[in-house]
Amino acid sequence: MLQTVSFAGLEFSPLVVLLPVAFLLVAATRFILHWLHLRERIWKVAWFEVALFFCYLAATVYLLGGR
Amino acid sequence: MMKTMRVLVTVLLVLIAGGAGSWVWNDYMYSPWTRDGRVRADIITVAPDVSGWVTKLDVRHDAVVKKGQLLFQVDAQRYHAALAKSEATAENEKYALALAQHKYERRKQLVKSQSISAEDLEVARINTQIAEANYKLALAELETAKLNVNRTKIYAPESGNIINLNLRQGNYVSQGVPVLAIVKADSFYVTGYFEETKLPLIHLGQHATVTLLGGGELTGEVASIGRAIANTNTQSDNQLLPQIQQTFNWVRLAQRIPVDIKLASVPQDIRLSAGMTVSIHLSEQ
């Protein structure tokens, strides 16, 4: 699984990939909630989305990080 | 009721996010893994035991050699001459000893008939011992000369690959100066440089997964954990005063301790070279 990201002889932390993946998942969730008209019902949307980002990040690290 | 539900959902998610963030932090900072690992191997430096011109070079760069295979040969003429000289010296000393023993035996008879003094007999006995010692010395020198002749042929001490061969036929090689190196076959292992904060999580025999930067995965187990690394603060200047390094007050870098990983097996499709970069993950048990 994704333990290191090597590009052109440089080795990067897998977070370089996992962070954008988590961000894209948050964006997708946001789009779906908006489409379902649920987003306006959320209390403190900013808090909700930041928390969602950390949940998605942990999930991607767990699932894609080879654990 | 609806308002309570809305608040509850956000609060619950924030709490879960706190736990998830904490797990990610601990996973990266305190689980036993490192990207700072290198492939290593047992390297044998080969140096001739005698000096002279290289008269025959039987290997090429990167060649595979077997244990006991002839690598190169040093001009043996000088050592053959030294051997002949030592043989002659040994023979000379052998006859000198025989002569001294003969004289001693003869004088033992003469002293009974009081033809010579007891002192003369004692001198003859000591001369015999001196001749015996000289003979032993000559034999030892003969052994050294034979050894030198044998050592003009340099054989591979182990099976492996020739590395860094800059030797050419006709070069002059000196005793004890390495001229090539051999990477011992099947001696590859991995050393991971783990931060000291992760050491409590590492123990001997722990299962390791090694990922090569160029692709490929190997498995192994922890074979040893380094007991010492260099400390720059222990160096002294020319007045023998300790040279203590300055540090930033707020930032400390964790030292890295070498941990050796013994590889279980190397798949056929993976070609290892000592010095390659690897990432190492140790099991948490």
TrEMBL record, chain A:
Keywords tagged on the record: Cell membrane, Membrane, Transmembrane, Transmembrane helix
Bilayer-crossing regions: 12-33, 45-65
Name of a matching Pfam family: DUF1656
Entry superkingdom: Bacteria
Protein name as annotated: Uncharacterized protein DUF1656
From TrEMBL, chain B:
Native source species: Marinomonas pollencensis
Subcellular location: Membrane
UniProt topology in membrane: Single-pass membrane protein
Domain Multidrug resistance protein MdtA-like alpha-helical hairpin: 83-150
Keywords: Membrane, Transmembrane, Transmembrane helix
Protein name: RND family efflux transporter MFP subunit
This protein's GO CC annotations: membrane
Coiled coil region boundaries: none
Statement: the UniProt record of this protein carries the keyword Membrane: yes
Primary subcellular site in the record, as a coarse category: membrane
Keyword Transit peptide: no
Domain of life: Bacteria
InterPro entries tied to this protein: AaeA-lik-b-barrel, MdtA-like_BSH, MdtA-like_HH, MFP_Efflux_Pump, RND_pump_MFP
GO MF annotations in UniProt: transmembrane transporter activity
Domain p-hydroxybenzoic acid efflux pump subunit AaeA-like beta-barrel: 187-281
Family: Belongs to the membrane fusion protein (MFP) (TC 8.A.1) family.
Domain Multidrug resistance protein MdtA-like barrel-sandwich hybrid: 43-183
Pfam families: Beta-barrel_AAEA, BSH_RND, HH_MFP_RND
